[in-house]
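Work package 3, deliverable 3.1, input record:
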Amino acid sequence: MRMLITGNHAAAYGARLARPQVIAAYPITPQSPIYEKLSEWDGEGTLGGRMMRVESEHSAMAACIAASLTGVRTFTATASQGLALMHEMLHFASGVRAPIVMVNVNRSLAAPWSFWSEQTDSLSQRDTGWLQFYVADNQETLDTVIQAYRISETIFLPSMVVLEAFYTSHFMEPVEIPDQAQVDEFLPPFEPAFRLDPGNPAAFSQTVTQGQYAQFRMKRHAAMEDALHVAEHVDTQYQGQFGRGYGLMDCYRLEDAEVVVVTAGTIGSTARVAIDTMREEGRKAGMVRIRLFRPFPKTQLIEALKHVKKIAVIDRNLSVGQEGIFCGELKSALYSWTERIPVFGFVLGLGGTNVSPLHIRGALDFIERYDHAPAKPIFDIEGCNE
Amino acid sequence: MNRENVYTDLLYPGHMACAGCGEVIGLKLVLQAAGERVVAVVVPSCLGIILGPFPYSSFRIPVFHAAFETAASSAAGISNALLSKGDNETIVLALAGDGGTTDIGFQALSGAADRNEDIIYCCFDNEGYMNTGIQVSSSTPQHAWTMTTPLGKPQKKKNMVEIMGAHRIPYAASACACFPDDLRIKVMEAKKIKGMRYIHILSPCPTGWRYQEKLTPTIGRLAVETNYYPLYEIRNGEDYRITHQSRNLPVDSYLEAQGRFSHLTRRDSDAIQREVDRSWDDLNRRLK
């Protein structure tokens, strides 16, 4: 069935199709329409699972963790301050290997107060042991939520599906809603071997020794490394069944590209327009939109980018005192490649400011003019401020 | 033989509580009365120590050692998960200390009470952060010494039973580890009811209260017999019942037995007696 819906509603449809048994949520702009849509279905009796209208995001995540350990599929959604409040529980969720799926709608963090798109909220949760998918449109939102359950429940780590405030969350697009029977076939019921069960008493997340702790940490890392192959495999299977696949990254006109934009989220859609125009002018421009941020697809990125001459990373986020976060991650990944490719870091679109095709073009023009990338992030591109 | 009073112990011996611990007595009684069809949450507190290190467990029931402030939200998550699987028989216990309940876990507890989650929440109140080395909590009584109130706590103890009663939950009660039958009966009463049930269990602590280990039963009984800590229950926020008629002993007998009150002047203890009398009258006025 094809429907004209927002990114938030696409997330809600994706979640309902996955048949979560416990959903715990708390309102926050711009995520609230997900919570409202799920509540509407709960009221109609078509949700399927139990809805917990909790008093904070911290409790939402705590409830999802405990429910997941009881052996049921769980879902929650949040944004910005709510995600930051959950921070402690994000480490906990991956530590107890609870395969929760959460949608985060990227929103700028206070202070000062702001409600628009910026990725710093989710990127600040980089080290919590969650998979992170950055999506570019509403269809990808729905599909990624379903894929994320399958991936998470294979490797027993939680997943965050990240869309952008308003650009994705409130924008309406035609979305293909898969049949429930097909999704059921793709995503079998969640049946973990270990769970809180009065018939089989066991203690979960006990105190451990230093050595045991180190072992648990390394196991979590190994599972995260497995996630790369699992995510690729699940995406291929999804494509086979539903006709839509996304890969770990979205590579656009990359084959013979010399100057390349690397970005994530909706800026990737904008970049396509700019690159098409530049290609018409005979310039060899291309784009990589990173979809899976954790685990970071290092070898796949080297493979995709090793032939290019220069890279412009466009980050809608900032690690204050350092640079854009995707830029830092990409530089780190490319360090193990024998050739040195100059990586120019642009920090654009902070606080939800617009990144137009003009900015993409401006960034690629800029890197063509210089042989060496500056150590500092570039915040302004001459002639691009509308 | 009357089988009603034969309980199965669901706490193994060899746990790691301090000698003379009042809390572990209360825990044993709660688990006896709750029975075997139980899933429990414990949060960081002395309970986490009693539970023991990986891969051992002193509990004979499934237990999740959750984050500090999440006793209520984690228990609610388990309860909803069980209900989603059609299991409305298993009892879900939230077991927390007074810091995890009256301070850091207060918001999650109030939220769970507001939603009338189907859990039994037991607060083991040893009147301070004893697990971390005797720091003040909002459940520490006025004038008591702790490592962070070396001159005595200026503020009064937070009254959690009244606060939970004010949430209009089906069942809220005070209990004490040193009144075993009263405590077990309250857990069994709670089991008969669905929705949010809260039991506040005074748990004398020789380590933090500064008294000899063998005095735990005496101290707990004195707390009740002086009306310093009355045993009662509140149903639906309005139906009050005192479950143990006290002997109205002078509060001095309770205070003088503990090192944490050794600095009190006559004026201090007289003030405490007046406060105890006032609270006792207040409670009695609420009885129907």
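Residues 8-285 of chain B form a domain with the Rossmann fold fold (CATH 3.40.50.970).
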